[in-house]
Amino acid sequence: MNEISLMPAEQYQRLQQRNAADVKELWDLLDIIKDPELPVLSIWDLGILRDIERDGDRITVTITPTYSGCPAMDNIRTDVEKALNEAGYQEVTVNMSLSPAWSSEWMSPEGRKNLREYGIAPPEDADLDEDGLTPEAHAQCPHCRSRDTRRISEFGSTACKALFQCNDCNEPFDYFKKI
Amino acid sequence: MSDAIKQATLEYVTRLGDDSVVLGHRISEWVSYGPFLEEDIAYGNVALDYIGRARMYYSYAAELADDGRTEDDFAYMRSDRDYRNMLLMEMPRGDFAYSQVRQLLADAYATVMLPELVKSKDQTIAAVAAKAIKETKYHLRRSRDWVLRLGDGTEESHQRTQKAVDQLWGYTHELFDMDETEQLLADNGIGVDVSKLRDAWHAMVSEILTTATLTVPDDSWAVRGGRTGYHTENLGHMLTEMQIVHRSHPGCQW
């Protein structure tokens, strides 16, 4: 199956920001930091990593939570500090930024692909209307690719996921919500 | 920022934090008691969103207060008379219908309030609101669906839901009250004039209740006090439970 990647504007801007950064090596370095609850997604893939600045010896990293109460943020902050310390940067500040609010549009194309392979349907794998995730969303089963699925609950194992079940292969699966 | 505005803003974000943490805690009381696993998880998720909001408001309050207090001090080291949450948020868990009706009333409030709060000239307040709006859409859809299902369900579920509506209605007037602090902030483009939101809220809630074959109560009684620190007895009990670990082990961190 051919995959045509349509990059959302938000994602394009993020990519531009990363490529134009004067600390591009730090963006690359932080690719090793994964979301503790989604180990196939780096904080770059998920769009949690917002900015990296260098001022002399001081590195300031800006991250943003996916949901208000995301419990992974404290872990991520520690992981970022540790990775930079180990790379020889001793003065590290990690800022939490709330605005603009995180959007699932920021997720990278690789992240979406990895998510699907991991067994979680990415945001674009469901039919969404203005009202969001209705019972008729028919999220695509990441296991057998069937669209004959039903929504079990809009609230899944973490704040960013909803629970579906496939009517063809019967497997339950998570769907990463679009917000 | 002038001192008066700064003080008012501190008071305001503390109120918003109190509303969020109290409701978040109440919702969390369903965890492991939900009618089935998915509902258990759903309420856990919603609780997390509210507690997350509370953290953001409280950390901002701590920043504004600038007197050494942290977000934890705001959540755990204040007594019921210091809390400024609206009474609706502290009402006990009740049965599932009661909790879902309260959730609907609160979600509808958030739905009309947050789009105004997002316009706040205070960037932190606006940012928290922008984040919360997205989550509120999910919350409202769920509480709405449940109230429809319970109201228009069996005779028993209908009765329980109607009873919850009747019992909670008197606490909703407070949601739209303004005092000097809120007026000052509304006039300065920082807070929201919630008195202007009641009609939109009432229309939204009435439509849902009517569709659920429930009767919208008249406005004959109203209870107030939360914003001035006069609470129902429920809050003290709730805070005792919520604060016990932190107060027993001062300064402890997870």
UniProtKB/TrEMBL annotation, chain A:
Pfam families attached to this UniProt entry: FeS_assembly_P, Zn_ribbon_PaaD
Record InterPro entries: Fe-S_Maturation_MIP18 (IPR052339), FSCA_dom_sf (IPR034904), MIP18-like (IPR002744), PaaD-like (IPR011883), Zn_ribbon_PaaD (IPR056572)
Domain of life of the source: Bacteria
MIP18 family-like domain ranges (all copies): 26-87
Location of the PaaD zinc beta ribbon domain: 133-177
Membrane spanning residue stretches: none
Protein known as: Ring-1,2-phenylacetyl-CoA epoxidase subunit PaaD
Organism: Amphritea japonica ATCC BAA-1530
TrEMBL record, chain B:
GO biological process, one term: phenylacetate catabolic process
Xref: Gene3D superfamilies: 1.20.1260.10
Molecular function terms, GO-annotated: phenylacetyl-CoA 1,2-epoxidase activity
SUPFAM superfamilies, sorted: Ferritin-like
Enzyme Commission code(s) on record: 1.14.13.149
Pfam families: PaaA_PaaC
Record's keyword terms, sorted: Oxidoreductase
Stored InterPro entries: Aromatic_CoA_ox/epox, Ferritin-like, Ferritin-like_SF, PaaA_PaaC, PaaC
GO cellular component: cytosol
Name listed for the protein in its UniProt record: Ring-1,2-phenylacetyl-CoA epoxidase subunit PaaC
